[in-house]
Each structure stands twice: as C-alpha cells, then as structure tokens.
Amino acid sequence: MRKLTFKSRILSLAVLCGLTLALASCTNEDIAQNGNQTDNEKNLTIFSTGETPATRTSMESNGIFYWEAGDKIWVKDDNGTWQQSSNSPTNRTASFKFKVPGKFTKGSTYKVYYPGQNGSQNQVTIAASQSQTEPNTTTHFGTSGDCGIADAAWSNIENGFTFTLDHKASYLLFLLRASNFSLYDCYLTKIEVISDNDIASTYTLDQTSGKLIGGGSGNQIVLTTKNPNPGTANYNGFPLNNRITSAATNGAYMVIKPGTHNLKVRYWVKDIATGTEGYITKILGSKNYDQNKYYNITANLDINNYSGNNYYMWDAQKPYWYGYEWYHLQNGWQPILPNGKTGTGTSTSAFYPKSKTTDPLRWYNGTFPGYHKSNSATTTLFQTLPNANELSWYTMKGDPHWDDDILWTTMGHLYKGGMWLKKKSVLQSEGNYNTERSADGVTDLRITYKYYNNVASFSPLSATEINKYFFLPTLGGYTGSMFFGTGVYGYYWSSSAFSEESGHEAYALQITRGEVYVYQNGGRGTGMIVQAFE
Fold this sequence. Notes:
The chain has about 525 residues and is mainly beta.
C-alpha cells in the first residue's frame, strides 16, 4: 500500500492513462461560471481559488485536481450567518471565482468550507454508497464525501478573497490485476470495504482542530464500478484483462473517513457469459489513514483455476479433447461454455471421440470380466484414483460441507460452488477408511452394488477446520459433443468399473448443491474429471 499526499486545493482528481504514476499538467485553463452579470451581483463577494499553470502543484500519481460542475462553498459572513456561493462551475475547471452573498471585510480572514455536494455548511456526509462510472476518474468525489477547509484572505489582484483548500477526507485508490488469465473476460462490478469502526457517516468540519469530527455507525462502503447506461463502455463494469496494475484499465477511487481502521475488502467480479458473480476477499489489516492523503491499494485477484484437460472417458489413455484442446482457440474445438450459455466458445463440438476405432486413445476401457467380478482401471493415471469403496468413505464420513460462495475458474470463465470433504489422512486417523470394504464395513462395491449418498452441511468451515478438508468444484462434464453441468454438478471418476452392468458403466463421485453420492450409472463414455483425492 502506497501513501501519497494531496498537495492541491481542487476537489476531484483527473487521472491520466498510463501504467506508472507520473506528474501531469493542466490542459484546461478556462473558468466556467453560472449566471449573467446583473446589478444583484454588486452585493456578492468574490472568493477565488486556483493558481497559474506554472505554479499549480501536480499530484504525485499522474493527475491533477479540478473543481467540478455543481461544486459550491460555504462561508460565515460578518454577521455570523452561513452563506452559500450563488454560483458554481458548469464544467470541470482548474480555478474558479465563487460569488458569495453577505457582508465581508477586506482586512478580515474567513474560513471557507467545502462540504461536498451532499453536505451543507460545515456538515459532511461520507457516502456509504459511492459510484464511479469509468476507470481512473474521481468526478464522483463531490457526491462521495470529499470535503475541505481553507483560510481566505483579501487579494487586491483578484479584487476578492483567495483561498487554497485543504482536503479533510482520506482516499483509497484500488489498482487491480489478474495474473490468472481466466478472469480476462470478467468485470469488476463493485468494491466493498468493511471496517472495524466507522468510515461513512455525517461529520463536522471543525475549524479549531482542522479535522472531521464526530462519530457514526457506518462501517461499510460500497463503491459501484459500472456505468448504468446500457451500451456504454463500462456497462458491465471495469475490465480485469491486465496482468500488471493499470489505473487506466480499472483504477477505482473511494472516499473514507480518516483514522485508524482495520479494513477488509471484497472485490466483486462477474463473468457475463456464465452469469457468475461473486467476491474475492483481501484483508488489509490495521492502518492509519491520514486526512488529505490517498493510498494505493494493489491486489492480485488470484483464485483457483482448474484445467480443462482433466476430462476423460473412463480409463482412457488420453483426455476427452486430446488434439482439440480449448486453448488452441480454434472455433468448433473443445466447448468451454456449458449448454445453454452463449459467448465465445460454443457448447458443442463435432470433434468429440466417437468410437474406439476412430479415437482409440480417447476411448474408454470397455472390458467386462463378468457380473460381480472386480474390474479395475489399467492406465497409470486412473490407477491413482480412489476406488469405489474409498468413494463411499469420503461420502459418508467425509463430513461434506457445501460452499456456495467460493469462486474458481476453468477455461477462461468464472464459476462458483463446490464441496469440501475431509482429507484421506483425516479419515484414516479417525478410523474411517478402507480400500477393501465400503463405509458399511462389509460391502465391496467393486463386486456388489450398494447405494451411498449424504447430505452436506451449509455451515462454513472455520479457519482452523478448513485445513482438514479439500475442495471439489462443480466442473461438470462432457457427453457426446455437449458440455454440461458446470457450476451445478461435479463428476469425479474412480478406478472401479461397475460390476453389475456389461461394460458400459463405472463408479464416480457426484456432487451437487447440498448432496454428495457414489454414482454407479456413470457411462464410461462420459467425459468426467480425473483427479487424485487428497
């Protein structure tokens, strides 16, 4: 996390595109002002801000500050009455002459208050709901809770009072990257920050301390990172297709109350093709966030990625899509989106294995030694898998826990959901594991069929418990040319064929939301996952 200081007085940060933080200069020197000159304006006093380009301070990041359309200031006049500027910028400007009603004396100094566009007088509201419609811009600061105080003194040159605003909020700049290319078609939809104390509420700009004072109960801020208008560039959110941090790609800014906070951040991401949306959590820990400063918060949105090359027919020598793998990016090869989804990567393909004659390496082992005779896998890979008896122990004694929220990717797309089961070593230590007998202690599933299923718990595992478990995602499978069930079902081959059917079925573990069972009707020609269990 990198801390930088606001050295200027303008209220919103216009950040230039680029991968590094660099100095920038202003390109718009026009002063925009509402209203026409009338006799009524003779009773207005000028309060101006902004220096010439040569002396104006640039940010250390790669941007500068501006006033935005709708910004107004508040000043107490000689009678102690709050006065609001009668005019405001009509567009972004580096300097501006505010016109303030009331009585003011040239030799006096006045406190100028900027309470943001949602505040009034010296009352500031740091919003719990903030919205940024494009990357790398802070035009939303005024409505999010940006605020400041300044001392205004008379200037004969300006024929009015001049001031330099001192910002009183803290600012977070989120810089995200995705080293996992499977997020490249995903979008950042919002950032949720949860604190151990208040970071969003209504506060007072205190002229004595020069700080925001007051407390509140708002310990959560949600920054939406989408443009609400259909058809716009960021309607789906900010892209995540960068492997190094890039403010121009997805830089997101949040206003928070200064202070020492223990922050937890949830980055919400969405895959438009699959419709999956969920969050990735990062813990920042306790840190002091000073007023008038901003902090770079970088995050690698790394989540578990599962290979698309682990789908096999039962006991086949090569994967289901061997020679036609999805990563070759050839149209009509391995489908990467489940049936019913649309997008890049069809749900079906003509290159699936069709017979032992045409596709001997990808075809299943169809041997059948006879009814009620053990028939185990012969390939080295399938021999590493648990047999049918072992699957029953995972099912009945594995204390299955379903996880609705865990995110994972496969073949360039985002999904969530899966099952936690106790590891083999834990089952063995508890006396709940046997390769020769199933979970009833009697039946050998390799010879005699018995149905096993179990209902999963939905209670989340604690941090101390989870190390005893391993995770199985709902990776779906292939049948013929069709990809199906991803995000809904998981099918995991065993090393055991089904002995009560002549050569067409084998055992697998099936998981779905809230349930796990030993699946004996797994057609050997189905493309299911080959994975050694922990």
